[in-house]
Amino acid sequence: MNSILLALQFFTSLPVHKELPLGKKEVSGMYIALPFVGGGIGLLLAGVAYITSDINSFLAAVLILLAGLIATGGLHVDGFADLGDAFFSYQDREKRLTIMDDPRLGAFGTLSLLVLLSLKIGLFIEILQLVNGWALLVAVPILSRAALVGYYTVTKTAKPSGIAHFFKQHFLRGRMLVAVSTISIVTVVLLSIQYRSLLLLPVVLLVMCLATWLYNRWTIKHFGGVTGDLCGAFIEGMEVLLWLVLIVYFSFGI
Fold first, then answer.
1. Which residue has the higher pLDDT, 215 or 105?
2. What are 217-228's pLDDT values in tens digits?
3. What would the DSSP string read from start to end of the chain?
């Protein structure tokens, strides 16, 4: 129970006003619970999609977007914006990390945020047109967070301090990787059954693994490793990528 509360406390806007232990068992459990938290957020998105199914698709897509932002408190999009500011500053690693820690939003962060939100609205409009589109709204937040655990587990931290570094010292790597791999496979299998598509499993898992590996190499090259902001940006980017891949996949009727 403490692990679930930790996941809600650190990765959502739900008020969990309780001091919780941060031992290896609890921190590992928090990351294992994270995909299930994503599933809860996905159900919220699907619920909003259902409620707004009879109104203009653009407005419905905006409301779905707002529901996700409210559920996460904008935590992940903030990381994406900070990443935009830092990367497009074209500074060295140390300066980029300093820029990411700056609470002020710059021009490149603003542009990155606008691109991200516009893409999500466009993707939601397309998903609303799909048969059983609700399943994509539920599955992708699960998969993006499961992939995050994989990325975070195998990537060194960029700084010798901070929350990402602290958690890195307090988890059981093997247990986490086995758990999130199982969750990912089960989620995609259920999605494959829902859409009666045999090729969906290898396609989605390949995209997740390749994207995670590329992001791992990219963040090590440009930032020296993982940070909390880079984790938030990963979730947002992976969601957009998976929704885009799934929309293209189903557009071919595979």
1. 215
2. 999 999 999 998
3. -HHHHHHHHHHSS----S----SHHHHHHHHHHHHHHHHHHHHHHHHHHHHTTTS-HHHHHHHHHHHHHHHHTTHHHHHHHHHHHHHTTT--HHHHHHHHH--S--HHHHHHHHHHHHHHHHHHHHHHHSTTHHHHHHHHHHHHHHHHHHHHHHS-BSSSSSHHHHHHTS--HHHHHHHHHHHHHHHHHHHHHHHT-TTHHHHHHHHHHHHHHHHHHHHHHHHSSB-HHHHHHHHHHHHHHHHHHHHHHHHTT-
**CA pair distance 96, 110, nearest whole angstrom:** 16
For residues 22 and 29, give the distance between their C-alpha atoms in angstroms, rounded to a whole number: 10
Task: Give the span between the Cα atoms of 88 and 107, in whole angstroms.
Answer: 10
Q: Which pLDDT value is given to residue 253?
A: 64
The residues near 162 (Cβ < 8 Å, ≥ 6 apart) are: 227, 228
**Which of 180, 179, 204 lies closest to 191 in space, CA to CA?**
204
26 membership: H or E segment, kind and range: helix 24-51
What's this model's pTM, rounded to 2 decimal places? 0.94
d(CA 36, CA 52): 24
Token pair of 28, please? 């590992």
Cβ atoms of residues 30 and 6 within 8 Å: yes
Q: Which of 19-28, 62-71, 93-102, 122-131 has the lowest mean pLDDT?
A: 19-28
